[in-house]
């Protein structure tokens, strides 16, 4: 449709209506999917940079849609946040991740992504404690990942929630570090154990001047604040070598292992796992 003048507005209205329609269908589908158990968690290994020894796995949500097949989180997390459904989804994720991790043949940690909306709008502490009690997973084996988006609108309550979690033994990682707008002072306000260096720095390690310098700076920052550093999105041996040289503690990426269903994990342990 070519839009000009009044037609231009008509086109605009139609496409907005179509988008709202699509959103609405997605929401209805999503509610049904939750009720029908169409969601599943895939797990991606996180290993020591030097030895490739398995230390943990990140849980990544997938929607096994009856018509559309496997749907990635980028297509439904925002909708789930806007509609508040992320509360129910997030609870299911925590319950499932803890229950599945409790059956793993190793004692790797399980890292669970927490949406900023879930963080602000639900009683995260209660939900996490229930998941731990129900599964019997030791709190030391649970790690939560939050992004800088949480920090942008933080209140004293949020800091206290994180401290309580930490006192329980749960560890806290700052996800996608280096991409947001948060001031570095947040790093001492919040009790982070780990900095996850965003994939863009790994990707540009060779391509862009100065990226190696940024990774080194983050590693030094992490060291002086007593935080572990993890590089995301490691796809090549060269990247791994450079990250190791920069002093990154842990790595995660397709080179080491792709996200896979829990069933695959039990059948074939991740590379680096103890034989
Ligand atoms: P994230 O937390 O930064 O997760 C890492 C993403 O990078 C995952 O995409 C993972 O599959 C992908 N990835 C891992 N290694 C590589 C690599 O070597 N190369 C490339 N190109 N990509 C790699 P995924 O699973 O599609 O998740 C996208 C985002 O959706 C996540 O980013 C996270 O923000 C969100 N998400 C995923 N699962 C959950 C969840 O359970 N709860 C919440 N609240 N958000 C989730
Ligand atoms: Ca993450
Ligand atoms: Ca990330
Ligand atoms: Ca990301």
TrEMBL record:
- List, for all copies, the residue spans of the domain called EAL: 23-273
Name of the molecule in the record: EAL domain-containing protein
Q: Which lineage do the record's taxonomy fields give for this organism?
A: Bacteria, Pseudomonadati, Pseudomonadota, Alphaproteobacteria, Hyphomicrobiales
**From-to range in the entire protein, with total length:** 637 to 911 of 921
